[in-house]
Design a protein that fits this description.
CATH class of the largest domain: Alpha Beta
CATH superfamily of the largest domain: Bira Bifunctional Protein, Domain 2
CATH architecture of the largest domain: 2-Layer Sandwich
Shape: elongated
Distance between the termini: 51 Å
Radius of gyration: 27 Å
Number of strands: 16
Number of helices: 17
Bound molecules: histidyl-adenosine monophosphate
């Protein structure tokens, strides 16, 4: 019978490689957990309209990339392509914004789904760790998030990433710019789809990667020249706070992002060792999203960092994460010693020592191979004669030294040695 394979554009995380993913998730969420962000988990699917309204009807994500389904009950659902709309929906549904002080600060970690053309760094199932700070308009909050992402990447040992920063204006100044840009775009020679995009979301046209389009865009009006005084002042404060924290960034007036909900601050973390899928993370302010999905005005800001691409970035920089061996002590039981060593392993585990034992009735050679493979610092080996003497042989796997230790002392001895 033919075997099955992971669906196109997906891959499995398998030990020992999978340990990197856990370490990256921990490293990204670590700074958030130290900064007042509480953990939130939402379903893997939502009402399709949540994303259509939130992420935007004209975006690639909504028009081309969503996995949608109709349930037997007739509900139209989509596998979540991103986390922000879901997290805001959950916060509104739980009335978190009414419960106490704003902002509501939340972090999350999970799987997301986009029907994209697969290539290195771009998958149909990928994983993000994200953060959303809901319900406050304060440049310090935007700065906090950028600084925390920078801290997370640095704690992993990443160095060759850049932070691109822009302001997309607000509901006062962006429409004026939009009109100016639309009138510029209407004079260009563009294909039908791009003309349609120029009508719905002209800013996205600036993001077009094709050389012939980029050539025509030379001289297009720049949003920076249209920012209102409030947006300018807000952006300057964000820049000043990030600068004061010693976090380097580049102003990028072309940074638009692929989701429609952004206002004011937008940013992207790019890594230069990744080829075309260089964005390892991104985010920004989304002051109007709550109203777009039926909530009250709740100015908010957040980001999501891609776990898959962060792992690729670590590999591109040759960073080896310091991941401790999962097993500290490995038991090798010979003859009739299995039940006794099995009991010892249970005791070790209960004492908080990572311990494992050889299974499958192997002889000394095979079981010692298992011990080596486990990466354990110590092996405990015992046969009938050892047990008759009330001891096990404690083997230091680094030095190769071996000495008998009384059965009654072994847990304490190992705990001390490993401390
Ligand atoms: P996004 O830029 O669409 O933003 O995704 C964030 C990150 O997820 C990307 O920078 C990338 O690392 C990763 N990513 C996205 N698509 C894929 C893919 N197909 N394969 C692998 N990795 C991918 C958002 O999702 C927003 N919700 C971020 C945000 C939060 N804005 C405000 N709050």
């Amino acid at each position: 019978m033919a075997t099955f394979q992971a669906p196109k554009g997906t891959y499995d995380l398998i030990p020992p490689y999978s340990a990197k993913y856990l370490a990256v998730r921990d490293a990204i969420s670590g700074p958030l957990r130290l900064s007042g962000y509480g953990y939130v988990e939402t379903p893997g699917f939502e009402d399709v309209d949540l994303f259509a309204r939130g992420v935007g009807e004209s975006t690639d994500i909504v028009t081309k990339e969503m996995y949608t389904l109709t349930t037997k009950g007739g509900a139209n659902l989509a596998l979540r392509p991103e986390g922000t709309a879901s997290v805001l929906r959950a916060a509104l549904e739980a009335n978190l914004h009414k419960a106490g002080g704003l902002p509501v600060k939340l972090w999350y970690s999970g799987s997301y789904y986009r029907y994209e053309r697969p290539q290195k760094g771009r998958y149909r199932h990928f994983s993000q760790v994200g953060a959303e700070a809901i319900g406050a308009e304060d440049p310090a909050l935007d700065a906090e998030l950028i600084i925390l992402a920078d801290q997370a990447y640095r704690s992993l040992g990443l160095r060759n990433f850049r932070i691109l920063l822009n302001s997309l204006g607000d509901k006062e100044c962006r429409p004026v710019y939009r009109e100016a840009l639309q009138s510029f775009l209407s004079g260009l020679d563009l294909d039908a789809e791009t003309v349609r995009r120029a009508e719905i979301n002209p800013l996205r046209v600036l993001d077009d990667k094709r050389a012939d389009v980029q050539k025509q865009l030379v001289g297009a009006p720049v949003l920076r020249d249209y920012l209102c005084d409030a947006c300018k002042a807000y952006h300057e404060e964000v820049r000043a706070l990030i600068t004061a924290a010693g976090v380097a960034f580049e102003d990028d007036e072309k940074l638009v992002r692929g989701l429609d909900y952004y206002t004011r601050t937008t940013f992207e973390f790019v890594h230069d060792g990744l080829g075309s899928q260089s964005a390892v993370g991104g985010g920004g302010r989304y002051d109007g999203l709550s109203e777009m999905i039926g909530g009250p005005a709740l100015p908010s800001v957040g980001w999501a960092l891609g776990v898959d691409r962060t792992v690729l970035a670590l590999e591109a920089e040759g960073v080896e994460l310091d991941i401790p061996a999962s097993t500290s002590v490995f038991a090798v039981a010979l003859g009739e010693a299995k039940p006794v060593l099995f009991g010892l392993v249970t005791e070790l585990r209960r004492a908080g020592v990572a311990a494992d034992i050889s299974y499958g009735g192997k002889g000394l050679k095979g079981a010692m191979k298992d011990a080596n493979r486990s990466g354990a610092r110590f092996a405990i080996v015992a046969g009938d004669r050892d047990l008759a003497e009330g001891v096990v042989q404690l083997k230091d796997m680094e030095s190769g030294e071996q000495s008998p230790v009384a059965l009654t002392d072994v847990v304490e001895v190992l705990r001390t040695k490993l401390a």
